[in-house]
Backbone:
């Protein structure tokens, strides 16, 4: 190799060894600073599962597993817009056609692994979209629009049910929506005591005038609000993450074809559609990890713990657990 060719090779090698500048904050810059490592998502540990999943699916670099919960026949029993869990108990409204008194009821089952037992009737219930827990009690509207409170042992009837609620496991309070106003309330002797107004009539804010709103859940000091607005001649579904004063922190843009429930887990936000589509977000950043599909017809979702979610399939009339 001649001298000129050797110089050319050395020049090319030198250029390749130079740090690349202008590639974002996670790359080394021209000041000689070292590249920041990409943060790895830390997911909660999960106990080993002996039961074979009914379905396995991929999302990003992760794997999800679907398990059918068996042991109680739920055929033609559930008719609910929302499900919640308290410990290992799953709560749902029922279909009046399946009840002897032809009125919808609140019922629960107990989950142990992939088995459900102890179908229990907790009495007649009201609006199927209203059901909440703060991790200590479960609340829903009774048949006569009173506040029904289940404390793990008995159901007590309190004052009048008012609005939609989502409970905070840390404080024990509930975020309650009445009209477009959001309040914090605590339960005392069956009464809802208002502690403060979080947002005064959100529908007077730009972009919220004609929006459909409903609180979904509270997680680590943030509360999550379902937000539906008409855009480009179709309903667009979002989930908003808000701080304790109602300031928007992040928004997650959901799917549009037959959208159903949302779930917020330790690491993810999940939006489900009736044909089995799932959109899975990184909860911390709001970025979409993946759009995927499962062989179920999701109707309602709720996080049990960590990244484990309960799903009600209204076509199969069954409950499933999905481990994300």
Residues:
């Amino acid at each position: 190799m001649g001298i000129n060719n050797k110089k050319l090779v050395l020049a090319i090698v030198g250029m390749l060894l130079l740090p690349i500048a202008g590639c974002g904050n996670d790359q080394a810059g021209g000041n000689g600073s070292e590249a920041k490592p990409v943060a790895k998502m830390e997911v909660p540990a999960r106990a080993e599962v002996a039961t074979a999943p009914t379905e396995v699916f991929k999302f990003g670099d992760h794997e999800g597993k679907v398990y059918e919960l068996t042991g109680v026949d739920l055929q033609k029993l559930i008719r609910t817009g929302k499900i919640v869990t308290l410990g290992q108990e799953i709560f749902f409204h029922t279909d009046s056609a399946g009840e002897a008194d032809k009125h919808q009821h609140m019922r629960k089952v107990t989950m142990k692994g992939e088995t459900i037992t102890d179908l229990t009737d907790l009495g007649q219930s009201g609006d199927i979209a209203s059901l909440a827990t703060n991790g200590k009690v479960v609340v829903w509207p009774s048949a006569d629009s009173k506040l029904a409170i289940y404390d793990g042992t008995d159901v007590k009837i309190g004052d009048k049910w008012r609005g939609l609620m989502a409970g905070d496991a840390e404080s024990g309070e509930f975020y309650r929506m009445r009209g477009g106003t959001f309040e914090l309330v605590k339960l005392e002797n069956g009464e809802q005591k208002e502690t403060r107004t979080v947002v005064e009539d959100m529908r007077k804010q730009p972009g919220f005038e004609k929006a459909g709103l409903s609180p979904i859940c509270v997680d680590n000091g943030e509360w999550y609000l379902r937000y539906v607005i008409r855009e480009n001649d179709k309903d667009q579904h979002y989930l908003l993450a808000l701080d304790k004063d109602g300031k928007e922190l992040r928004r997650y843009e959901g799917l549009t074809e037959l959208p159903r429930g949302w779930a917020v887990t330790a690491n993810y936000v999940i939006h489900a559609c009736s044909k089995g589509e799932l959109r899975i977000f990184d909860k911390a950043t709001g970025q979409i990890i993946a759009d995927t599909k499962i062989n179920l017809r999701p109707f309602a979702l709720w996080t049990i713990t960590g990244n484990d979610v309960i799903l009600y399939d209204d076509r199969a009339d069954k409950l499933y657990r999905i481990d994300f």
Summary: The chain is about 5% helix and 50% strand. Helices lie at 3-17. The CA atoms of residues 172 and 312 lie 26 Å apart.
